[in-house]
Specification:
By secondary structure, the protein is mostly beta strands. The protein contains 5 helices and 26 strands. The strands form 4 sheets. The protein has a 16-stranded antiparallel beta barrel with strand order 9-10-11-12-13-14-15-16-17-18-19-22-23-24-25-26. A 4-stranded mixed sheet has the order 1-7-8-6, covered by helices on one side. Strands 3-2-5-4 form a 4-stranded mixed sheet, with helices on one face.
Length: about 525
């Protein structure tokens, strides 16, 4: 569905359903350093004078190891068999076995040399005992134990405990609505065991207010946003969010609701969403008086296949439906009812060279039932049973000192004529930032950006300077099956600031390229600014 206007460039942001697409945040590569695990440090076992005791190593006998075979551990001592070694080197063998367990992820396991008589004359036999550690008791501080016990149960069941199990449980706890958590591992009265203390807290409400001028003039030169988030309305960890986006007049108004409801204690979530928007954009067209409306609903599930501080992979699937309409001069110009199945995944990986890479893929398929429009219905000039594949990739790389860089890429592919709400839009605060939101839209397209950042830091006021460049293009399918292509680029500099009382803001100067900004009619540099507060 699209409005047929003399200025084809007007067909982006003013189209029904575009504001929902333009205000939808993309995933960002972030470090999960907020989850802290204080692991135990085993005391040094080497006795005094061990360097002076020598013997001929003939055999090493290992006991207590179940998850790692003796053969897998033998590299720690096999080069020393048949050679004279010191008692200190014998303790070094035990330390190497402990390191091998740590390397395999068993953070509570260690190897010790129990009391024994080692022959210093002739061939000696060295006995090493492996203690495969586990968690005996778990205590909770800050949140009632009955609310978190099920999430930490895998940690208590697993013997010996792996770091991966502990990280997954803690990350799942940390993803609960409003919750932050830290794990402290302590010595236990139970032999070979440790006790775990979970220090957690939960914030029940979160609010934010913001205003910025990154908007298209047809929908208001300033855009205001307010959001409220409430946790634990139905159970302990359900999250409910309400968001209002407005131009403070009839040019743009959007109200949206979303909810995450945990199902069980392994990370599965039920996700609900609903939104309604109405826009009466002010344009210079002869037949302005445009009135667009959109109602959007979604129901889905999301599950974390992999959760760790280093690598993560989540899958999602759901049904989405929306009803869009546009009236021009009091007459219905277009109307469609879209029902779509969406399946996606998001993965990220933090590597050893200070970088975090993220990939998000989503396949969307328009459905023919549930009240969906059919090709050829009045007011429908797209294929409601479309196929579409979208991709987004990003890498955040730490450089020397306070420098870092963000590289990001997005792409979309479809051979169908898509509803405008499904098309890729360039412009706005993510890609091609010198242009208005959805400056150009199309079924096919791609864009990339590079942003170089310098963190100035600061105790009460922290700021980050940045310079960026981006470019992209879209192809829009016409009714005869041909495509029109539009390319654009931009570059800019700016500063982001975090101030006291959780205030935030930004100031950016951006220069468009390869295409005039439609609302300005030129390629002059533009100034964007925004202020916000979270509380």
């Amino acid at each position: 569905m699209s409005l047929v206007t003399p200025s084809h460039a007007q067909s982006g942001a003013v189209q029904p359903g575009r504001v929902e697409r333009d205000t939808r945040p993309l995933p960002e590569p972030v470090r999960r350093d907020s989850v802290r695990i204080e692991t135990p440090r085993f005391a040094e076992q080497v006795p005094a004078g061990a360097q002076d005791v020598r013997f001929l190593l003939g055999e090493v006998q290992v006991s207590g190891n179940t998850v790692l075979s003796t053969q897998a551990l033998s590299a720690a001592w096999s080069p020393l068999v048949g050679k004279p070694i010191t008692l200190a080197e014998a303790f070094g063998i035990a330390a190497a076995i402990s390191a091998r367990y740590r390397q395999a992820g068993f953070i509570l396991s260690q190897a010790i040399i129990p009391p024994q008589d080692i022959r210093t004359v002739g061939v000696g036999v060295l006995r090493i005992q492996v203690i495969e550690g586990f968690v005996d008791k778990i205590s909770f501080t800050g949140i009632a134990p009955d609310k978190l016990a099920a999430y930490m149960a895998p940690v208590q069941r697993e013997r010996p405990l792996r770091l991966a199990t502990l990280e997954r449980s803690l990350l799942l706890v940390g993803e609960l609505a409003g919750v932050t958590a830290q794990a402290n591992i302590r010595a236990s009265a139970t032999p070979n065991a440790s006790d775990l203390e979970i220090v957690a807290s939960q914030k029940r409400t979160e609010f934010s207010l913001s205003a910025h001028n990154r908007s298209t003039p047809a929908q208001g030169s300033v855009r205001y946003e307010a959001s409220a988030e409430v946790q634990g309305v139905i159970g302990s960890f359900d999250r409910h969010s309400l968001r209002w986006v407005t131009s403070a007049n009839k040019q743009l108004n959007l109200l949206s609701y979303s909810a995450d409801l945990p199902l069980g204690s392994n990370g599965l979530k039920l996700q609900l969403g609903a939104s309604a928007s109405r826009s009466e954009p002010e344009t210079e067209l002869a037949f302005s008086n445009i009135d667009t409306r959109s109602n959007n609903y979604s129901l889905g599930l999301a599950y974390p296949l992999l959760r760790s501080r280093q690598s993560n992979l989540s899958v999602r699937g759901g049904l989405n439906g929306y009803n869009n309409s546009a009236d021009v001069a009091g007459s219905r110009a277009s109307e469609d009812h879209i029902r779509a199945l969406r399946i996606g995944l998001t993965g990220d990986y933090a590597d050893a060279i200070g970088g975090i890479s993220l990939l998000d893929l989503e396949w969307s398929k328009g459905l023919s039932g549930l009240g969906a429009s059919k090709p050829g219905d009045p007011g429908v000039d797209s294929n409601p049973q479309f196929n579409k594949l979208s991709a987004y990739a990003a890498r955040l790389q730490s450089l020397s000192g306070n420098w870092s860089a963000l590289l990001a890429f997005t792409a979309q592919q479809s051979n169908d004529r898509l509803p405008t709400a499904e098309q890729l839009g360039l412009g706005g605060d993510t890609f091609l930032r010198a242009f208005d939101p959805s400056e150009v839209i199309g079924e096919k397209g791609s864009a990339g950006k590079l942003e170089l950042r310098y963190d100035l830091g600061g105790a009460r006021i922290a700021s980050t300077l940045y310079v960026y460049g981006d470019a992209g293009s879209v192809k829009r399918r016409q009714t005869d099956g041909s495509y029109t292509s539009t390319s654009l680029s931009s570059a800019g500099v700016g500063v982001r600031v975090s101030g006291p009382y959780r205030t935030r803001g930004y100031l950016e100067v951006a220069k468009p390229g390869r295409k005039d900004v439609t609302s300005e009619g030129n390629r002059n540099a533009r100034v964007f600014a925004g202020l916000g507060i979270d509380f």
